[in-house]
Amino acid sequence: MSKDRIQELVQSIPVVAETIKAIDKQSAITTQKRIHAAISLTVQERYESLILAYPEFLQRFPQNMIASYLGISP
Description:
- The structure is a single chain.
- By secondary structure, this protein is mainly α.
- The chain is built from five helices and no strands.
- It has helices at residues 3-12, 14-40, 43-53, 57-60, 63-70.
């Protein structure tokens, strides 16, 4: 979908504008939480947080991807 088409939808359908704002807000919150965790939590704490939030990820993704997400080497 082109940027112009999205702008048309946002202007003509208020719910689309609200949905995009909500998605952007949630994305910003998630990014801030991840930055905060990377700065202030230990690797063990980040790993435990990952397990609590997304337990299925440990089965779905290889260890090197999980390590990369946590900011450590495999």
